[in-house]
Amino acid sequence: MDLIIKNGTIISPTETYQADIAVKDGVIVAIGKDFTEEGATVIEASGKLVLPGAIDVHTHLAMPFGGTVSADGYLSGTRAAACGGVTTVFDYPVQRKGKTILGLIDEKKAICEQEACVDYAFHCCITDLNDGEILEEMEKAVAEGITSFKCFMVYKKEGMMVDDGTFSKLLMRAKEIGAMINVHAENPDLIDLNIAKFKEEGKLSPWYHYMSRPEFVEAEADKRAIHWAKNLEASLYIVHMADKEGLEAAIEAKKDGHDIYVETCPQYLEFTNEVYKREDGRNFVCSPPMKGKESQDALWKALRTGGIDTVATDHCPFQSYEKDWGKEDFTKIPNGCAGVENLYPYILAAANSGKISFNKAVELCASNPAKIFGCSQKGSITVGKDADLVIYDKDKDFTVSVNTMHSDYDHTIWEGKEFHGYPVMTFSRGQLVFEEGEFVGKPGWGKFVKRASKK
Ligand code: URP
Ligand code: ZN
Ligand code: ZN
Q1: CA pair distance 426, 409, nearest whole angstrom
Q2: Which of 59, 93, 432, 443 is surrounded by the most beta carbons within 10 Å?
Q3: Beta-strand (E) ranges in 14-173?
């Protein structure tokens, strides 16, 4: 053993118990009592919780978008992840039209080999089938451990949208090769119609970002995506679910036995559309937008009752000056917000206050993401799995400030939020990468996570 974590309270999705954890070569080798070994680093964790590292299955690092590039690259984004107890990130490289996806993945892997501070995986966003060439490439990507692909039902003018025909081809192909299709569901035509109308009327404040994409705009697309998946008997993962009606449709489909998964994000659990009335409303502009209280309540209910499978961040920050492009016109605001460092602290603070259990928090942020996306080495504190571990102090108070975050952005929608309870240490494969507010890892430490297909 080279690391022993002693006397902590271990949290699994189903159990809470006190034990020691022994780690060798980055892997959990034993869970038991009274471990000692000469030369091993010993961490005393009595009075603390020991949790599996979170898996943030939704980030956009160094992503060209909205006329710029998201403000966190692979180094700063994964550094921030480590400092928030996230030990694996799943990024979303976007296929450039007419280009291959395997080339894109190789490019991203080469950057991550130098920069990633925690482990990483990719879901590849497909924007163009290239006359079917991409359908062939998908199988090779699966063999390389990239077993999920994303399509956008929106972002038409950005050249990222796929039509229903392409979407259905992707669902069918994914089914053949044991992969998953992730979808961003909003109706692009309704959005365009609303935007044109608001522009004509001179209604350009951030509130009209919400008004151009209200609840039914997301719900319509959720239902359409679910309809396709059901009828093609394909797996579907709906990203960043924010509306009640779409959520209910997904829950119904799950009950009927369809292989449908739902993700939501902390921003939809914490904020409502009221934020778009604020002076700094532009900083909260992301898509889908925050919705009304009824949707928010439905999301919380579904978290508790199993209707939502994962919580991930959609981390896609932009600098203040970039958000300011839309001060006078919401359509010019780059869409996206920060979150990777706040995900686990936010959900764990919700557990600490009794809103959900700690076991549920672990299920949503670690074990379900690992299961759904085929990360056999990750997601729980189990002998044989990677020692991706977080030590959590239930009594530590923490107030979020951009100055104490570890990203490269200059503002955060989480500014001033108070958490009772906070991670004090993060281990990535047994290596300490975060301790008491400081990043202590190193770029290039993170490894590519090769995932299993559904076959
Ligand atoms: O506003 C967002 N969510 N930006 C990132 C891209 C996406 O839609 O996930
Ligand atoms: Zn999206
Ligand atoms: Zn996203």
Answers
A1: 22
A2: 59
A3: 16-24, 27-32, 41-44, 49-52, 54-59, 64-65, 68-69, 86-91, 119-122, 124-125, 148-152
Pairing of strands 54-59, 86-91: parallel
* Residues having C-beta closer than 5 Å to ion ligand 2: 184
Which of 127, 316, 322, 409 has the most ligand 1 atoms within 8 A of CB, as the residue to mutate? 316
Ligand 2 centroid to 188 CA: how many Å?
12
pTM listed for this prediction: 0.98
Q: What's the pLDDT at 455?
A: 83
| Ligand 1 atom closest to the CA of 155, numbered from 1 | 8
Same domain, 11 and 67: no
CATH of the domain at 27: 2.30.40.10
Burial class (CB in 10 A: 0-12, 13-18, 19+), 315: buried
- pLDDT string in tens for the chain (455-residue length): 899 999 999 999 999 999 999 999 999 999 999 999 999 999 999 999 999 999 999 999 999 999 999 999 999 999 999 999 999 999 999 999 999 999 999 999 999 999 999 999 999 999 999 999 999 999 999 999 999 999 999 999 999 999 999 999 999 999 999 999 999 999 999 999 999 999 999 999 999 999 999 999 999 999 999 999 999 999 999 999 999 999 999 999 999 999 999 999 999 999 999 999 999 999 999 999 999 999 999 999 999 999 999 999 999 999 999 999 999 999 999 999 999 999 999 999 999 999 999 999 999 999 999 999 999 999 999 999 999 999 999 999 999 999 999 999 999 999 999 999 999 999 999 999 999 999 999 999 999 999 999 88
**CATH number of residue 189's parent domain:** 3.20.20.140
d(CA 38, CA 42): 10
Domain co-membership, 356 together with 311: yes
CA of 177 to the centre of ligand 3 (A): 24
Q: Which residue in this structure is represented by tokens 């400030």?
A: 401
Closest CA relative to residue 334, chosen from 320, 345, 351, 322: 322
Q: Which residue has the tokens 């480590």?
A: 82
Does residue 330 sit in the same domain as residue 390?
no
What is the extent of the structural domain holding 304? 53-372
pLDDT at 273: 98
Q: Which two tokens stand for residue 353?
A: 């206050």
Residue 401 lies in a domain: no
Question: Which protein residue has the closest C-alpha to ligand 1 atom 8?
Answer: 287
Helix (H) or strand (E) holding 237: strand 236-238
Q: How many domains does the chain have?
A: 2
